[in-house]
Design brief:
With 298 residues, this protein is of the alpha/beta class. The protein is 43% helix and 23% strand.
Length: 298
């Protein structure tokens, strides 16, 4: 029986190739040359005595065993990350490197007022940020690519721990000259089925907006084409429909320079919970709790 043990670097290359499905993109994501990544995976296969990846000119296809090895590699790499976290957690609180994903419906509205103060108060913290949709951010957390995620709940996150940051109301945004003269609180019944513009799949705000309205027919008729809240606002400003916006975006001035009006949605579930989540039993829990305190203060 072979006593060869794969290196973490080889497993990282294999996982990157599985994620990107292309040697060039996987190498770029791993910050190495394509030849280095390819050689690392070939060496892994040679020393294990198995084929993990079927290669052709156009397609990279993992064997059945290759997929099983990738699943195991994710767990091994996550454990290695947690080992490093354990050592780092023994040092100065909220110091060193920390990787955080933030969803696009939070990042541009909360981070600009939060980051300057954090840099001033926590000079020993190296915070690396990734902006990702809720779906991609949770996957990054589960696979160990990030340490924590700032997102909006409810959303399916799996086994995680969380810290509540704030509650964020949902607003209905519509053209200034809407002929119906909407009231100060917009009931879901006033939302036109064919004019509701929402973010594309993968953004939790889409589900929050539809859930708050509690009108099944909206889910079928809503136009989900927006890639960002700023894009949706511009579409509403051009009288192409109406949309939903979180209060933090309105407070941050997303409507500045437009003729779009936003008023609160009248619904018992017209709020989303802003929360920081991390992997269950992470040794850096105290750091995340401190980070949550900083976020709440911001």
């Amino acid at each position: 029986m072979s006593t060869y043990l794969p290196t973490l670097k080889q497993l990282q290359y294999l996982v990157a190739l599985h994620e990107h499905g292309h040697f060039g993109r996987a190498a770029e994501a791993s910050f190495v040359s394509q030849s280095t990544l390819s050689a690392g995976i070939r060496e892994l296969e040679s020393l294990l005595g198995v084929t993990l990846v079927e290669r052709s000119r156009r397609v990279v296809r993992f064997t059945a065993l290759g997929n099983q090895v990738v699943d195991k590699a994710h767990r091994i790499l996550r454990e290695a990350e947690e080992l490093a976290d354990l050592v780092q957690a023994a040092g100065k609180p909220l110091a060193g490197q920390l990787r955080m994903s933030v969803i696009p419906t939070i990042a541009p509205f909360l981070l600009p007022r939060f980051l300057p103060r954090l840099r001033k108060e926590r000079p020993d913290l190296e915070l690396f940020l990734r902006e990702e949709t809720s779906q991609d951010a949770v996957e990054s957390l589960q696979h160990g690519r990030v340490d924590c995620v700032l997102l909006a709940l409810p959303f399916a996150t799996g086994e995680v721990e969380k810290a509540h940051i704030s509650d964020d109301e949902l607003y209905v945004a519509f053209p200034k000259d809407d002929p119906r003269d909407p009231p100060d609180l917009i009931p879901p019944s006033m939302i036109d089925e064919g004019r509701l513009l929402l973010l594309e799949d993968g953004h939790c705000l889409k589900d929050h907006a539809l859930g708050a309205c509690n009108r099944p027919e909206l889910r079928a008729s809503a136009t989900m084409i927006g890639t960002s809240l700023h894009t949706l606002v511009q579409m509403v400003d051009n009288d192409l429909g109406l949309t939903m916006l979180p209060k933090m975006a309105v407070d941050a001035g997303i409507l500045t320079g437009t003729e779009v009006v936003a008023r609160p949605l009248k619904s018992k579930s017209a709020t989303r919970e802003i929360a920081l989540i991390w992997r269950k039993n992470s040794p850096r829990r105290d750091d995340f709790e401190l980070l949550a305190e900083e976020l709440r203060a911001g």
